[in-house]
Amino acid sequence: MHFEDGSPYTYFAPGPGEPPARSVGWLEEGHPFTIGRLPTGVLDRIAWRCAFATTHQTRGIHRCSLCPRDAYDAERECYLLVRGERPRLLGTREVWIPGPRGVIYAAPDLVVHYLVDHAYLPPPDFVEAALRLEDALPFGWSVAFLTRAEVKARW
Ligand SMILES: [Zn+2]
Q1: How far is the CA of 68 from the centre of ligand 1 (A)?
Q2: Given CB 3.0 to 4.6 Å as the disulfide criterion, which of 2, 8, 78, 151 pairs with 90?
Q3: What pLDDT, in 10s, does the model give residues 46-60?
Q4: Ligand 1 geometric centre to CA of 16 (Å)
Q5: pTM
Q6: Ligand 1: centre distance to CA 34 (Å)
Q7: Cα dihedral 127/104/63/79 (nearest 10)
Q8: CB distance 43 to 115 below 8 Å
Q9: Taking the CB of residue 86, how many other CB atoms lie within 10 A of it?
Q10: How far apart are the CA of 115 and the centre of ligand 1, in A?
Q11: Side-chain-side CA neighbours of residue 57 (13 Å)
Q12: How far does the centroid of ligand 1 lie from the alpha carbon of residue 155, in Å?
């Protein structure tokens, strides 16, 4: 599912009391996106959100369409690995990040994979909003492709 960065969020209809949101990080093959280097601290903060503060769980798994098919076959899924925690399957939830002036940014949890493995550089307002988040994973986390069998065997 592709949405332009900054476009009104429309993936789910707003729930009661949910503020309007802006889409960020809904990348898909065939749609160019900005790449670049993130300021220190952004990744750790977004990763924390993807690990511990997601919303809008979906029934299916969205797979990254940017990864080469042979590297990301149907057996493998993208996981966020946090030291001491069970791996978290990515591609099934969203992270919402409050921005300036009441703006909310809605990103798929795969955004952490896009940042790590595809050098995706989100819009500056989103980056600033992420830097203002209090919680961050301190160290010892990564994103990896694993099979369910590997996850079951190791965790
Ligand atoms: Zn990918």
Answers
A1: 8
A2: 78
A3: 999 999 999 988 888
A4: 33
A5: 0.93
A6: 15
A7: 70
A8: yes
A9: 11
A10: 9
A11: 6
A12: 23
pLDDT average, residue stretch 129-152: 93
CA of 114 to the centre of ligand 1 (A): 6
24 phi and psi, to 5 degrees? -145, 135
Ligand 1: distance of its center to the CA of 143 in Å? Answer: 10
Q: Residue range 92-120: average pLDDT? A: 95
Distances (CA, A) of 61 to 11, 28, 36: 15, 14, 27
Which residues have a Cβ under 8 Å from the Cβ of 136 and sit 6 or more positions away? 41, 44, 45, 47, 48
The percent of residues in the chain predicted with pLDDT above 70, rounded, is 99
